[in-house]
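Reopening this ticket.

The earlier resolution said the output was attached, but the attachment link was broken on my side. Pasting everything inline this time so it's all in one place.
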Amino acid sequence: MGDLSDHFSRWEFQAEDQRLEDVKVDRMLLIGLEDLRRRMGGAGVEITKPGGGNRPKGEGSLHQTGQAADIHCPDVALAEVHRQALECPYFAAGGIGL
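Inline output:
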């Protein structure tokens, strides 16, 4: 059980140089991530932290504002994750990196 939603916690979005209380995660992103997880039959959806958590893309990025996340689903083929993400209404215009 996460502290932001049923399956996601604030620390998963925390950059290395960021205080936990400063982490911002958009509610719609969480709804999209939960929807993606449900569409994949409950398979694990992990938030990745390449080079600095949810802020790898620079000042003013969607990652910094908590509106985007990079994910990894270890038990599901990348093509299937991509297909399922495209079917999620929240991710139809982007916001998820695979």
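Reporter confirms the inline version is readable. The two ends are 23 Å apart (CA to CA). DSSP finds two helices and three strands in the chain.
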